[in-house]
Amino acid sequence: MSRIIRVMFADDSSVTRRILSGVITRESDMELVGAAQNGNEAISFFRSQNPDLVLLDVDMPNLNGIEALKAIRKLNASVPVIMCSTLTVKGGEATLDALAAGATDYIVKPGWPTPSSI
Question: What is the reported pTM?
Fold first, then answer.
């Protein structure tokens, strides 16, 4: 029997939370242990659930993903944390900030095209 990967994520978008929850729960080797709306909730879930993998949105209210990442790294320096964000001009800076704060990797969430990209 394969090991179940305990996953938690944080994203302020209810649509993204619903989609990610569905994707994770459909996987036979994954268990969703938390779906937070902001960085503060993410830290709380992390403390109580001890996940194997964390996905964090960069831009969230109350406490952003970079600050949540820093707090999670103080609790556990080895758990993989993948930062997620839509592609923006600021995205390059956010990527470097996330990696400097201890993110394992960084992915771009799909987004709507902007008028300048059409």
Answer: 0.84
pLDDT in tens, 92-112: 777 778 878 888 888 777 664
Phi, then psi, of 2 in degrees rounded to 5: -80, 160
In the block, which residue shows the tokens 């592609």?
87
d(CA 68, CA 38): 9
Strand partners, 46: none
CA distances from 44 to 11, 59, 60, 71, 118 (A): 14, 18, 15, 10, 40
Give me the residue spans of the domains in the chain: 5-117
d(CA 47, CA 9): 13
DSSP for 51-68, please give it.
Answer: -SEEEEESS-SSS-HHHH
DSSP conformation class of 3:
P
**Class (C level, CATH) for 5-117:** alpha beta
Q: How far is the C-alpha of 39 from the C-alpha of 59, rounded, in Å?
A: 9
